[in-house]
Design brief:
Blueprint: E1 25-29, H1 34-44, E2 49-54, H2 57-70, E3 75-80, H3 89-94, E4 103-106, H4 126-147, E5 153-157, H5 180-204, E6 210-214, E7 219-220, H6 235-241, E8 249-250, H7 251-254, H8 256-263, E9 272-277, E10 281-287, H9 296-310
Parallel strand pairs: 1-2, 1-4, 2-3, 4-5, 5-6, 6-9, 7-8
Antiparallel strand pairs: 9-10
Helix pairs in contact: 4-5, 4-9, 5-9
C-alpha cells in the first residue's frame, strides 16, 4: 500500500503560476480594458490563443500590444464585438475563424452613473441589453464552437453589486423607475442567473460544456497596476487608494476568479467563484451561491424573457 505522501493530489491553486493551456482558444469579451484586460493578459501567459472581443478597434490594438509587451510569445488577437447590436453577433462569432472554442469569458459590460436612460440599437435598455441580452445571444452563436471542444467552459462575470439587488421581472428594461446604479446591479444579477440556469440546461442535455459564474469582489482602478496606455495609475491615485486595500483590491486581482474558472480542472459547472476574503478581496475560491440566485423559478422566467427579447433559442446544441 502506498504511503499517504505518495498519493497523487491536486496542487494548491497559485495565481502566479497558472497551468499551461497550449493549443486552447479563449475568447474574452471586453478584453481591451478593466478586469477583462487582466483576464486576457493572465490567460495569455498559459500559452493559449486569447481573442479579445471589443467594439473599439483602437483600444483592442492597444490592449494586444500591451499584452505582447508583457507576455513573451503571447498568442493574442482581437475581433470586433458589439454586444449592444444583436444583429452583429453571428458575424462576430464567425470572425473567430476557429474550429472550436475552449472557453468564453462573458466580461464586457456597460455601467452608467447618471440618467438619462439609454437604449441599444435593438431598443433595449443599454446596460441590461449589453451586459445580459448581448451575452445571452452571443452564447447561442458560440455554442457550436464550444460544443466542438473536449470540455469547454462558459464563464459569466457577475458583480458583488448584484448581491443586494433583486430582479423586477415585470420591468426588466427599467422603463418605470430608472436608477442607473440599480439598473447596473440588476443587469449583472441577470447575467449570474443566466450563467447558473445555462448550466442546468446543459446538464439536462448531457453537454460537455460547463457554465460557471464568477465575480471580482471589490476591484478599484486606484489599486490596479499600470498598463499604459490601457490603464495608467497616478501616484496620487495610488496614495488615495492605499487605505482601501484592507477591504478591496485592484482589477488584476479581480480577474483571478474568472481565470481560475477557465483553467482549474477541479472547477465544476453551476459553481460560483469569487475572492476569498469576505467575497471582496484575495485569492479565488468556490463560494456558496447567494440565496436569491438559487431561485430557479426566477431564472426560468428570465430565460424565457431573454429568449423572447433576443429572438434566439439557446440551449438546443448537444456536445
Amino acid at each position: 500500500m502506498p504511503s499517504m505522501s505518495s498519493t497523487p493530489s491536486t496542487p494548491p491553486w497559485d495565481v502566479q503560476r497558472l497551468p499551461r493551456a497550449d493549443g486552447s482558444v479563449f475568447l474574452v469579451t471586453g478584453g481591451n480594458a478593466g478586469i477583462g484586460y487582466f483576464v486576457a493578459e493572465q490567460l495569455s501567459a498559459t500559452g493559449a490563443t486569447v481573442v479579445l472581443g471589443s467594439r473599439n478597434p483602437a483600444k483592442a490594438e492597444a490592449a494586444t500590444a500591451s499584452i505582447r509587451s508583457r507576455v513573451p510569445g503571447a498568442r493574442v488577437r482581437a475581433v470586433r464585438l458589439d454586444l449592444a447590436d444583436l444583429s452583429s453577433l453571428r458575424t462576430a462569432a464567425e470572425s473567430l475563424d476557429v474550429d472550436s472554442l475552449d472557453a468564453v469569458v462573458h466580461n464586457a459590460g456597460v455601467a452608467l452613473d447618471a440618467p438619462p436612460r439609454r437604449e441599444t440599437a435593438d431598443g433595449h435598455e443599454l446596460m441590461f441589453g449589453t451586459n445580459h441580452l448581448g451575452h445571452f445571444a452571443l452564447t447561442h452563436w458560440l455554442m457550436p464552437l464550444l460544443s466542438a471542444a473536449p470540455a469547454a467552459r462558459i464563464v459569466t462575470m457577475g458583480s458583488f453589486a448584484a448581491k443586494s439587488e433583486r430582479l423586477d421581472l415585470d420591468d426588466l428594461q427599467s422603463r418605470k423607475d430608472y436608477l442607473p446604479k440599480r439598473t447596473y446591479g440588476r443587469s449583472k444579477l441577470a447575467q449570474m442567473y443566466f450563467g447558473l440556469e445555462l448550466d442546468r440546461r446543459l446538464r439536462a442535455v448531457d453537454s460537455r460544456v460547463a457554465s460557471v459564474v464568477a465575480h471580482p469582489g471589490g476591484a478599484l482602478d486606484s489599486l490596479t497596476p499600470s498598463r499604459p496606455p490601457v490603464h495608467v495609475r497616478t501616484a496620487g491615485a495610488r496614495l488615495c487608494g492605499a487605505p482601501a486595500a484592507l477591504l478591496v483590491q485592484g482589477k488584476h486581482a479581480g480577474a483571478w476568479p474568472a481565470v481560475r474558472a477557465v483553467l482549474d480542472p477541479t472547477v465544476r459547472g453551476g459553481q460560483l467563484w469569487g475572492p476569498r476574503v469576505f467575497s471582496l478581496r484575495g485569492k479565488p475560491r468556490h463560494e456558496r451561491a447567494w440565496n436569491h440566485l438559487t431561485d430557479t423559478s426566477v431564472a426560468a422566467r428570465l430565460w424565457d424573457a431573454s429568449r423572447d427579447l433576443t429572438g434566439v433559442e439557446l440551449g438546443t446544441v448537444r456536445g
